[in-house]
Fold each of these.
Amino acid sequence: MNENKRIINDYEIIQSFYVGEKEVVVGENKDAEYRYICGYYESNEIFERINDCRASNDYLDIMSLFCDRAKEQVELCKQTQKTEIGIITPDMYSPVDIYDDLTGKVVVKKIDNLRREYQNAENQLFYVTGGNGAKPNSRGTKVFGYSFASKKHCYIRRYDVEGVVDKASLPEWAKTDLAEIKKQIKREEKEVR
């Protein structure tokens, strides 16, 4: 058996497209009642599956659905991004080193570690609230905080941090986003009490 093949529910994945939040896949099983399937692939440490699946024996029908779903993901990704914000360049931040405490700072994620559709300033910026990775000389790598793109609490790894941005030199849209994030943090703290 070829170890490079992806097999899910007895279907070999023969096409896939991953942009934005979902991966669209086409699978083939020559022995199944329906030879082809198209759906959204998802996985975690415990399971993998294909959601919202359609099956057919008509390859062109399935490929048409695959193309429609891939285009839909591209359009959803376009809708969530701010237009013309560019990227954060090295002249806009100070490099980070192991002695920096990142807590309460806006950091820049390494652009090369972001998927292509997320290589923009909004996805590069991250407001740090804590974590072992935020502390200087720490063994831990998790840096907790809020993504400017999603405004959701999540974490990144310290080795994904390129530098620290001076809050005063943030673009206006980023200052507005940071204010929103700080308001959200206060709301969440009140809910916990």
Note: The chain has a mean pLDDT of 91.
Amino acid sequence: MRVVLAIVFLFSSLSPFAQLKPGFNVHEVTSTIAMCNSFNFIEQFGTSETIIPEHFNLHYSSDILSMDNKFEVYENENIGVINYRGSTDKMISWVENCYSAMIPAKGTIVIDGEAHDYAFASEEKAAVHAGYGLTVVMLSEEIKEQIKALNKKGIYQIIITGHSQGGALATMTRAYLEHLPKGELSKKNTYKTYAYAQPMSGNKEFAEEYNTRFSDKGTSYSIINKEDPVPYMPFNYEEEKLVTKEKIGGWLFGKKEFNAKKIGQDAFIRLFERGLTGYVKGSNSLINKILGLKFGKIEMPAFVADINYYPTGTLKELPIFTYPKVAVVISNLEEDALKDLEQDANGKWYKKESKFFQHKPYNYYVAVLKKWNTSIYNRLESTYLVSDL
């Protein structure tokens, strides 16, 4: 609990944001990534008080919804923040991630006999991740009610944020809200999105429309660590020619990085795209039946024959997270445990970097401070959580 005691005081000295303006804002990014750690802190320490900026109050915390989803709403005098939880260790949460066949970005989902019209984009060829799309549709009424509650308090400037799965839901929620029919929510509402470590949530047409409308205008950001594998999921490959004269020249003269693994991956995906598309559609039809057992019969739009996902949000890269050197005494360890250790030149043993260390939300928090708010970073009592090692 002593991890961030110094931070609370420093955040409390910041004045509330006067206005939600386009452009990358250091106060907004440091505050939203702090909020993205609230679920983690509650689970580990029983409270998130030491990580949440003091000038924001918790307005609402949802029950467990949809596929083990949860969101919070924070507020200050004139800004609200919708904060989505990332994936949990529950199977249903990973069903949401794996439900990665694409559905049209406009259509109707029928849940237990009730039709829900939705739109995430206007472009006819735009398509989105079925699991994230379904989740946003299932959460939409509650989200809209919370926005109306903020509006009653005079709050119309809203940031939508989340880490990992929560980041994808933040992006999809932004797209959903911006395509609601006129009159469903106040026209005074304005939105801004900060998504951390988000997996991709739609195809090229969806991403291009989203980025043109929001990212290019400074109101949607994607903050990633390039060593984190999650932002490159589910699928992505280059649509242009695999090998061109320009590419070869770039590789030969060092102007373009040659990545044999990426070339091989792209060739494999293209060669078997038809089979992969069939596999994804088939496996996701099974997932749809599984979800029907929990939520009643679900009728999804026909899956789109596209598996090529594209990133959304103006990209901001963080430095690679440094794994701490944790010395281990091996005298009492079984031989099998050595596979998780590494030995230095002096013969000392240390823990190997744990899987998905580069994806952990607290590491994103520390890296954000290190890059954009060094005064607070230098006052951190710990730059990692023991549970992440």
Note: Residues 4-16 have pLDDT under 50 and may be disordered.
